[in-house]
Amino acid sequence: MNYFVVQVKTSEEEKYRALARQALADSPMQLVYPQRRLRQLRRGRWKDVLKPLYPGYVFLEGEEISTEDYWSLRHVPGFLRFLETNANIRPVEGADRELLLHFLRFGEIVEKSKVQFGADSRIRVLEGPLAGLEGRIIKVDKRKGRAKVRLDLYKSSFPVDLGFEIIENAVSQ
User: Fold this and answer.
1) Sheet with 45-52, edge to edge strand ranges
2) pTM score
3) CA quadruple 75, 28, 51, 161: dihedral sign
4) Nearby residues of 41 by Cβ (< 8 Å), 6 or more positions away
5) Domain boundaries of the chain, sorted by first residue
6) What is the widest separation between alpha-carbon atoms in the chain?
7) 27 vs 104, 124, 169, CA distance in Å?
8) CATH architecture type of domain 2-166
9) By three-state DSSP, how is residue 151 classified?
């Protein structure tokens, strides 16, 4: 199965997905919109919120984009372009595909990982979407329960926060 990328207006991913599903009603293509659950402080209270995992992008799952699907998706409000370009639509490949599939194993909503911190304050992922991505972690914010991770997509790199829960601190011996 191939995954194609549609770049849409940032913060309008959900709206685009709803409209694009209607446009693709007769198509075998499926829209995939991975999201992440984060803890956010709003008006003095912590709340869990959903944010896009790849801000500004929606994925199409299928074998090939037909000409009919191409034009249907281009006419949906919020569409910006296909990646790599509109003239050269390529599926996600290589390390980018592996990273996308890593997150999709957890479903369309990526929940918080379970972590612990050693005596040296190094993060150790016990389970969840951060497992295996320790080398991509740029920054850790214990108070907010977030780890900033570097994601790649078509030769571009951007940081994304992923949530975590601290299980227990490792005791130095």
Assistant:
1) 45-52, 35-42, 109-110
2) 0.87
3) negative
4) 47, 144
5) 2-166
6) 64
7) 21, 43, 50
8) 2-Layer Sandwich (3.30)
9) strand
- Contact (CB, 8 A) for 37 and 109: yes
- pLDDT per residue as tens digits for the range 15-54: 999 999 999 988 999 999 999 999 888 899 989 899 999 9
**pLDDT tens across 88-125, in order?**
999 999 999 999 999 999 999 999 999 988 777 788 88
**Location of structure tokens 């612990």:** 116
Q: 139 near 148, Cβ under 8 Å?
A: yes
The pairing of beta strand 35-42 with beta strand 109-110: parallel
Angle, alpha carbons 146-151-152 (nearest 5°): 175
**Structure tokens, 139:** 């920054």
Residues 6+ positions from 100 with CB-CB distance below 8 Å: 3, 34, 59, 92
Task: Give Cβ neighbours of residue 51 (< 8 Å, ≥ 6 apart).
Answer: 35, 36, 38, 161
CA distance 163 to 142: 10
Residue identified by tokens 């699907």 is 69
